[in-house]
Design brief:
Elements: H1 2-29, H2 34-58, H3 65-88
Helix pairs in contact: 1-3, 2-3
Length: about 100
Amino acid sequence: MPLTWLCLLITISAFGLFFPAVITIAQGRGRAAPGATSALLGSGQFLLGAAAYPVVGLFGTQSPAPMAAVMVTCLTLGTLAAMATKRTHSCGHGSPEGC
């Protein structure tokens, strides 16, 4: 059980460190329509949270381990998606960041 709580602490700390940066990058990419970008980010967060909630319940309610497992899975999928996005958006092809 202490290992589960340590993993949760690390995960929540990572959310606090990286989440603001991810939102800033996304808002920068969608600067042509900032309201729509914000709405898509917010609704996407609620949609993914609503989809993950029942999955956690399927694995039991007596331990925080199912929640930790779903969080790690979502973080892994998010990392893979970010890596795939980085590969498709290379420097010099009209990227707004200016490299």
